[in-house]
Structure formats: C-alpha cells, structure tokens
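Ticket #4471: structure export looks truncated?
Reporter: QA, pipeline team
Priority: medium

Steps to reproduce: submit the single chain below to the structure queue and open the exported record.
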Amino acid sequence: PARPAAARGAAAAGGGRPPGGGAPGPEPGPRGAAGPGWGGEAGDSRDATRPRGDGRMLAVELNMSCPNVGAVEGGVAGWRELFDMAVDVLGGAGAGALPGVVVKLPPVRYEAMAEAAWGAGVRCFHCCNTLPVPGGGMSGSPLLPLSLRCVGWMREQFGPTAQVIGGGGVVSPEQVDAYRAAGADHFALGTVCMDPRLLFSDKKVRATIERAKG
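Actual output as written to the record:
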C-alpha cells in the first residue's frame, strides 16, 4: 500500500517532516492518526478504518489500482460499496482541513471510479497511482503527463469543491507549477525524494518543496 497522501507541500498526512525538511503535516495529537494507503478488498475497508492507538482513525487513502493487491470485484458497484463503507466510518470531509477519505486514482480509465467515489461523498482525490505494466507499477517521469491530464479532468468535472492532490514524476519546481496550473490544490513529492544523498543534505529538493508549499 502507498504512503499517506501528501498535504500541501510534501508532508504526509500522518505528520512529520519529509526528507527535504518541509513543513510538518497536520499533527493528530491525542485524537488519532492518519492511516496508510489502503489497497485491500471492499470488505476489508472497515478494518482499514478501525481506531489506531489511543484515538480514532482520522483519514485513510484508498489506493485503487495498486498492482500489489487484488482488484475490487464488481466494477462500479464494488467501488461504490467500498467508498460508501469508508465514508460511513470516516466521513468525506474529515476533521478540519484533513479529508476523511482520499481516493488514489489510476492514471488511466479513472472517470467511472472518480464519479462513483464522488457519489459516495468522497471529496479528496490523489492523481495518480502508478501506471500498471506487466512487471508491476511504473512511476516517475512517465507518469507526469497522465497525472496532469487526470488532475485537469478532475477539476473540470467536479469544480472547486474537490480537493485534488497532484503527484507523479515531480523532480523540479517547474513540475509543481505544472500540477498547480492543471488544478491541483496539494502536491505529492516522491520521485524527487528517491535519492539516498538526502540523508545528508536536502539541497537537491529544497526548492521543489518550497514551491509546493506555495
């Protein structure tokens, strides 16, 4: 399963700082914590949204096309069942600025899935997941044009009410700008952070993180 969706800038929903030293994500304190991405079967969503630690789960990302898990059966009806259960437990809007449910969309054939999620009350979407290929999932630069297209479609389809996280192939501030121009509210930085040298210096990613923070 994927990591939690990134909040504005590059901080994950569960709090803490990214390798580049950006601002921390929302701190849940005693209320609970944001959960990891979820890519299980429809019937498992209640387990994904059970309380963790001393508090209740505040948010969960449903990773809807992860190549490492089984597909949700039933097509649109199966997707809607999963979304309904997640929203029933966590709510679509969540607590404060933190969405209760985030749906991470595939980079292709996402339209019906997004509409099913919207109908269930989901209002935050992550564009996009990896591109399915025979060997698993492809991420990085090849994903960028597909994710930008998805972000633009989401904004045109659902308007300003939707929260859209743009991510995939970001390696520079200019690509953050491209996601923002396409309609993204928040940005997920992964490709730019995949460098072991970041353990010693955040110089390489500092400008990209600052641009994402806006």
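Status: closed, not a bug. The export was complete when the record was re-opened. Leaving a note from the reviewer for reference: Strands lie at 34-38, 59-63, 101-105, 124-127, 131-133, 136-138, 163-167, 186-188.
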